[in-house]
Write a structure and sequence with these properties.
8-stranded mixed sheet; 2-enoyl-CoA Hydratase, Chain A, domain 1; disordered C terminus; 10 strands; about 15% strand
Amino acid sequence: MNWINNVVRPKIQRVFKKREQTPDNLWHKCGNCGEMIFHRDLDAAMRVCPACDHHLRLGTKERLASIFDNADYQTVPVDGVTLDPLKFRDQKKYPDRLKEARSKTGRDDAVTVAHGPLDGVETVVAVEDFSFMGGSLGMAAGEAIIRGAETALEKKAPYILFTAAGGARMQEGILSLMQMPRTTVAIQLLREAGLPFIVVLTDPTTGGVLASYAMLGDIQIAEPKALIGFSGRRVIEQTIREKLPADFQLAEFQFEHGMVDMIVHRHKMKETLARIVRLMTHRPRNTRQAGTNVPATLPAPAP
């Protein structure tokens, strides 16, 4: 027995320990075509599958770095809100869920706001991160979006918002739903000031987020194949008792039906946004962005 414990078992444990030391996240399987992609290649491609062009979800840090010139930006501080106003508990306490999400993502909440140069034009950008509790709209997220609008007003800068959400945050109840009118008012202030508000719909954008600020942009852009809709497909089919088209609620379907102005590949997103910002703010065109496929007829800012 001593020989087994002292010799055999340690040798077996060393073998399995060596195997466990090999990282298990070196390869990523594309959810669309099943292609195995080396993690460095996927990051270099901005998380776009090189085999089928499927757009995987992009993190907040990577998104901001891809938009601002030389990844040079400053985050905007957002005032804290009440942590657990309703003392909500389901399978877990709400503060425990927040703590888990913050530990997983390294972020205080779903929305991060930053400002910096986009093709030399000072721009405010907000990013909604689906990895933080499904990008759900709570008081902190609403406060961040409003703070982004206030920053744009202070700097007289365009405001770009990347959305990704499953809807309102049920743990905050009516307080979550109140963020819909609050953010709508903030966007209206931008419109009255003649400042561009551009929305980029990423996968997925649903629920109360779609029913408020996500559809209020002067320009509505979507990433390819992004899921964009209010209610789930199954709920709608059961309600109307009809079979929906296969591409229902995808970005391409929304574009065909006039809900989205354009669909832009992630690799072309920065140059497209740069040209739109320059057109809407009447800035001289930067020759480095020549050849970008953006419509020439865009709405001018309000007087």
